[in-house]
Amino acid sequence: MVDERTSGRRERKRAATRQAISDAALELFLARGFDSVSVNEVAQKADVATATLFNHFPNKESLLFDRDDTFDIRLAEAVRGRPTGMTILQALRERALAVWVPLARDPKLAARRQLIAGTPALRAYDERSWLQHSDALAAVIAAELGRPLDDLACVTLARYFLDIAILTADREDVEGAVRIVFDMLEHGWNLEG
Prior knowledge:
The protein has 193 residues and is mainly alpha-helical. It has helices spanning 4-32, 39-46, 50-56, 71-80, 88-105, 110-117, 120-131, 134-145, 152-168, 174-187. It is globular. The mean pLDDT is 88.
């Protein structure tokens, strides 16, 4: 039998170690640039062994990105839990406005966002990681609409939805940018009108 107190303490300690590593990486990367900092320096600053660092993060790029094992679940809830009469696109729009816009405006995250945007390796890693959620979202959308899992319209909507966060995060008016993209998705690509 597993002692829940021991298990809980172990998870808290693991989370604290992961956060310390991530904080050390961000501090060093902001001070000297991503390419100028080694993984060994991050481990030393966080006061952990390099092997411990790699137990928490698979590579250098991942040091700035928190794992969110519940992201797909929350996206599914936004689609499945939408009010009667609300379209999937409307539910996704509400989700983006309620969650992504405040994060993009958070001044505490501005330096991190600038670091990622200005570092090609981090930007590519961020986009790859983010878009991994598209298959799960596409499956939820397809299930809600009674369509096959590989339905192109569902796959496209999922991909475009996730791209919205990437496309709008650095805009001066993030909310306005999100609304423009959703209007385009809802009403078509009338670029000349």
